[in-house]
Structure formats: C-alpha cells, structure tokens
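To illustrate this point, we now present one chain and its tokenised fold:
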Amino acid sequence: MSEGIVYGDFYDEIKVQSMHSSRTKYVVRCGNVSWGRDGNFKPVIYVLMEYKGRIETHTNPPHYMIEPDKNGVSDITKVINAMEELKGRFNIK
C-alpha cells in the first residue's frame, strides 16, 4: 500500500513570492515524484510552499491567492506563469 508522495531529484524550480507574507513563497518545480515508496518515479511539475526560507514537503497543498496584488496580478496567475515557463524550458507539450 502506498504511503504518500516521495519527492526525488528536481531538474529546475522557480520561486514565486506569495501575498501571504514577505517570507512565504510558492516553489514551482519540475522533478521526479513517486506516489508511494515503490521507487516508481515519474517526471512532473508540482508546487511546494516555502516558509521563512524552509521548503515544506509534508504539509497541506498550496492554496493560491486569487485577489490581485498591488501590481494587479494574483498569486495563481504568477504560479501558472511559472508552470508555463518550466514547460517551455523542458519542451513539455
């Protein structure tokens, strides 16, 4: 029986400042993930949270702010743009 997500090596990441606080970031990564401990890793794009410089891998999934910041852009738009940037870097269709 699988017991949660296991994060393997990652190829690249983009950190996106969150409106939650000045010390909180979304970490958008392209890397290997296994659903369980069977070693069956698959390449994926995923998002983790960074709080006070520490990346959390065992917390709830990120919740993306949808209201615009002072520049008129929401966190979800910034995260989607980061995903698109990683897709372009790795020629993901």
Remarks:
- The first helix runs from residue 75 to 89.
- The beta strands are 5-17, 24-35, 42-51, 54-56.
- The CA atoms of residues 67 and 75 lie 8 Å apart.
- The chain has a mean pLDDT of 92.
